[in-house]
Amino acid sequence: MTTSTEQSAEQLSATTLLRFATAGSVDDGKSTLVGRLLHDSKSVLADQLEAVEHASRSRGQEAPDLALLTDGLRAEREQGITIDVAYRYFATPRRRFILADTPGHVQYTRNMVTGASTAELTVILVDARNGVVEQTRRHAAIAALLRVPHVVLAVNKMDLVGYEESVFAAIAEEFTAYASELGVPEITAIPISALSGDNVVDASANMDWYGGPTVLEHLETVPVSHDLTGCHARFPVQYVIRPQTAEHPDYRGYAGQIAAGTFRVGEGVTVLPSGRTSRIAGIDLLGEPVDVAWTPQSVTLLLEDDIDVSRGDIVVPSDDAPATTQDVEATVCHVADTPLTVGARVLLKHTTRTVKAIVKEIPSRLTLDDLSQHPAPGQLVANDIGRVRVRTAEPLALDAYAHSRRTGSFLLIDPADGTTLAAGMAGESFATAGAAPARDDEGWDF
């Protein structure tokens, strides 16, 4: 006979995992929504709630400020804003969740790129009194660029506009038109009041005109696919294992995490960027040999031929190898305070490989108001979204980001101090290309 603890563990192991992020402008109520979601779904421990109640009383508030469940930094509590990405883990009987609560201030927009880069769903909040603002459009653009499959528009503070259906309908229509033009595949609009709890976990009695799901109901039921086994198989090499011991005198394995797809013993593979070919002689998983391995398992591959393979190389099936290139065209979200300029010398980090590169062109910068392209801006500053063309010192095996979020993404890094400058998505986006090539910089002419 199984105990209730064992039953709940079994139920939990059978549920799926949803990674989602929240975003919105300042004071739209993101942290309050997250706190309400945790509180009403019974995902808050008693001591956590007691600490929030104590902190709220010390600030002269009678009711507990649920935003304090996520705003843990002292500066956040003093200013009443979110500064850093706050990750929270909770579960219901139907699904497990990893939540990234991202900041709303314009100068922290870059943090949303971090929080949403691995998300399958993004909740974008809008204050019902203000409607769609520039920051709302910026967050929608980032969600579209990062290929987040599901977007929820949470129209918050409906209690402050008398729960009027017309207010919600107008905001939902404007946002849906904008996000659809960006290419967001699915948009779900939900009217809520995070402070009062309307339509967050429980259905609201104040909005009987709304017949859709609550926020939690949608989070629990939205279809999520983690099956990357059917994608283009990619294995970035992280480490070469050569024990050279009496027990393993000739062992040479290539360790790493499978980024996508499936690998099998006996399969013909190509090592990029060198282009050398071989076959998989063996796969070690947790110290045991297996015949098949798939994403996201961390394994060691053994090849039949003794070829030169090192960290940063990518092992791919020979019949499904991407083209290598030194000319990278991509859309980037600039995240550093230092501007990104034409001719800048940078490092480009793709999977486990880091190479020298130079910014050859910045053809355009996205104008968020009307989604037009500002041609040849010359530079990108913090929080800008634009197209770039980068020339690398060595060939890279990049997939289009539209095909693979793992192997189609990269970082641009300042070689002087290691600061991340921009997050890039290779291939086409809703942006267009166009300016003349920049002059080569001395010593960085690839």
Question: What is this structure, in a nutshell?
Answer:
Helix content is 19%, strand content 33%. It is an alpha+beta fold and 446 residues long. Helix 6 crosses helix 7.
Q: Mind summarizing the main beta sheet?
A: 8 strands, antiparallel
- Envelope shape: globular
Record field, number of beta strands: 25
Question: Structural class, from secondary structure content?
Answer: alpha+beta
Distance between the termini: 69 Å
Q: Characteristics of this structure?
A:
single chain; 446 residues; alpha+beta; eight-stranded antiparallel beta sheet
Describe the structure.
With 446 residues, this protein is α+β, with helices and mostly antiparallel strands. It contains eight helices and 25 strands. It has helices at residues 4-14, 30-40, 46-58, 74-79, 109-116, 134-145, 165-182, 215-221, and strands at 16-24, 86-92, 95-101, 121-127, 150-156, 187-191, 235-236, 239-241, 253-257, 262-264, 268-272, 276-285, 288-290, 292-294, 298-303, 314-317, 325-334, 340-341, 345-350, 353-367, 372-375, 379-380, 385-396, 409-413, 420-426. The strands form five sheets. Strands 7, 8, 9, 11, 12, 13, 15 and 16 form an eight-stranded antiparallel β-sheet that branches. Strand 11 and strand 12 (276-285) form a beta hairpin. Helix 5 packs parallel to helix 6 and helix 6 packs across helix 7 (165-182). It is globular.
